[in-house]
Design goal:
Structural class: alpha+beta
Radius of gyration: 29 Å
Distance between the termini: 56 Å
Number of helices: 2
Number of domains: 2
CATH topology of the largest domain: Jelly Rolls
CATH class of the largest domain: Mainly Beta
CATH architecture of the largest domain: Sandwich
Largest sheet: 4 strands, antiparallel
């Protein structure tokens, strides 16, 4: 432990007080953990406190119902024609030819997943072209 061993501050190169406080803090932590390990009622009380706190947080956090959807297009389109806003979309090219998703080629057998990933984020558009092939597109709106 050399942290605090500065010649410009404190005890001018003597870090004994710092080391002593760290060791005393570690001993206190060990003593507390030993006491909890012996007294299982204390562990249970602590866990009940944590559970109550989590329930309060859960109660104040309201979820929003989302609607899953699936389409099987064989031509060009936009998921926006199905849902005004959507939160995730997956595309699988199950046909025998290439198609495009967002202007990029998707080969047969490839699967792409997109997710807005955060609270209240969403997509408003998702263009695809399955002309000559077949896609399975699933989405959450």
């Amino acid at each position: 432990m050399s942290l605090g061993n500065l010649k410009t501050e404190g005890n001018k190169g003597n870090n004994f007080p710092f080391q002593l406080k760290v060791l005393q803090g570690l001993q206190c932590t060990c003593d507390e953990l030993k006491a909890i390990g012996v007294d299982t009622a204390a562990i249970e009380a602590t866990l009940l406190d944590i559970e109550a706190t989590l329930q309060v947080v859960e109660t104040n956090t309201t979820g929003v119902a989302r609607i899953p959807g699936i389409i099987r297009p064989t031509s060009s389109g936009d998921v926006n024609t199905v849902a005004a806003t959507f939160y995730s979309v997956s595309v699988a090219n199950v046909g025998l030819a290439d198609g495009t998703v967002l202007g990029v080629q998707i080969k047969p057998g490839e699967i792409l997943n997109f997710s807005a990933d955060a609270l209240n984020n969403f997509f408003t558009s998702f263009a695809y072209d399955a002309t000559g092939t077949e896609f399975i597109i699933t989405y959450i709106s």
